[in-house]
Every structure is written in C-alpha cells, then in structure tokens.
Amino acid sequence: MTSDDINDTARFFTSRRDRELLGALDTARVPAHVAVIMDGNGRWAKRRGLPRIAGHRAGAKALRECILTALALRIRYLTVYSFSSENWRRPADEVTGLMSLFAEVLDREVGSLDEKGVCLRVIGRREGLPEATEASFANAESVTGHNDRLTMLVALDYGSRDEILAAVRSLAADAAAGSLDPACIDEAAFADRLMTAGIPDPDLLVRTSGEERVSNFLLWQIAYSELWFTATMWPDFRRGDLLRAVVEYQRRDRRFGG
Asked: Which DSSP letter does residue 32 get?
C-alpha cells in the first residue's frame, strides 16, 4: 500500500460495494475522532479451531487496515481499545502472548507509521506492563511524536472509571492544597485532567463482534458520541466496514441534547 493509494480514496476503496459507499460519503463531514472497541478476536479464533493468540494476530492485521482507512478518509484522531484493565483476568498464557505481540507488531510497524504521518500515543497505566512491551510503546511514541496527520491513541491497561477517579483525586488534591478554587472546576477543567487532555471527544464509537456495550471505555469522552455496532468480528473488519460506519454516522442528526 503506497502513500499515493492512501491519498487517493478512489484508488484505496476498490470493491464495488465500497465504491457505492464512497459515492454517499460527504468528505466535508468526516468525523474528526473515531474510537474503536476491537472485539471478537478470541471468538474468531475459536470458530476456526485456532488458539486465541491467532485471533489477536489476525486482529493486528485488521488494525493496520483500520489505520490506513482512517488516513484515506482524513480522520484526524483514532483511539483503539487494545487492552483493558480487566483483561489481566484472562489466562496467563494469553496475556503473555498479547504483550509479546504488542512489542512485535510495534517494532515492525513503527517505521511505516512514521512514514505515513501517524503519531502514536498511549493512554492507560504502564506500571504493570512487561519491560519489553513498555519499551516498544515508548520508542514508538518517541519516533512518531512529531507527526500530525493522524493521532492514534492506544488504550493499554486502560479503564475509564480508573481514569475518572484519578482526575477527581488530582482536582481534590489541588483544592485541598489551596491552589484550586472548587467553584472553578467545570467540564473543561475536568477534561484537562483526563488522559485524553487536548484531544477532542470522539464523534463516533465503533464496536465489533455484535456486542452492544461500551465496556468501561472513554465514559466521559463519549457522552455525545454516535455509537455504531456491527456483528463483524474484529479480525474480519475491513476498510469498507469503517467507511460504512462513517457514512451511517453522516446520516444521523446530532443534536447534542438540543
């Protein structure tokens, strides 16, 4: 996939179905920020009699396609739920395999991400990550930090309730120290204490695999996001699926409570 292919949406979307969707796309109303709950890797593998890590490997390929599609559609921010704080409860061999896979994929793809103008940022806790995994993410952040074509936030060991509680504690500590007037705490002040500070809230939240819940993901930030659910398992998620989500997003009337 060349940069020219990504820049030319007509060359990027090649199937007949995708071309039809492309005809319905309003390029002036593409969501600035799309968040994705990448669900279904384990079930995808189980249906094929494969180990769960095979589903995660297939999911990594789907993520690459999702990034390319976001670039082709000129989406500015992409946030992906890669590993929740609850995922540590999974079998130890699956967690170990996932952490190794994160490092492997990042080390292989960091040059491509940088070449395409992707800035990678991690949100979540890093303290419990294996050293090699944390080092790979830190290196990717350093290498791609100057880019501004697409900012990709990777939610890793992330839980929204933990994020909100940390923001509350931070504000409370400043108020107790006398450096913050509690009466001055508004939505903007609170958002500045979140891990997504400086990033606009998602316009669109996508979840794959047929589940219709948000699973402790960006609870504050998605207050007015449009939600789009698909039965497609994440490893089968293709560029046309994200295009369809964006086209359906554009058909909705966003009133923000008004």
From this structure: S
Q: Determine the pLDDT at residue 10.
A: 84
- Catalytic residue flag (residue 39): yes
Model confidence pLDDT, tens digit, residues 143-202: 999 999 999 999 999 999 999 999 999 999 999 999 999 999 999 999 999 999 999 999
Q: What is the pTM of this model?
A: 0.95
181 is catalytic: no
Detail the DSSP E strand segments found in 118-253: 118-123, 150-158, 204-207, 226-229
Cβ distance 45 to 51 under 8 Å?
Answer: yes
What count of residues does the chain have? 258
In the set 5, 8, 39, 93, the catalytic residue is 39
Give the residue from 68, 40, 67 showing the smallest Cα distance to 54: 40
**Mean pLDDT of all residues in 28-46:** 97
Please state, in angstroms and rounded to a whole number, the distance separating the CA atoms of residues 119 and 243: 22
Token readout for 137 is 């993410």
Sign of CA dihedral 80, 222, 166, 85: negative
The full set of domains in the chain, from first to last, is 30-166+204-210+225-250 (3.40.1180.10)
Which one is catalytic: 87, 139, 147, 216?
87
pLDDT value of residue 255: 80
pLDDT, tens digit (0-9, with 9 covering 90-100), for 115-134: 999 999 999 999 999 999 99
CB atoms inside a 10 Å sphere around CB 255: 7
* List of long-range contacts for 50-54, beta carbons under 8 Å, 24+ apart: 52/94, 52/97, 53/94, 53/97, 53/98, 53/101
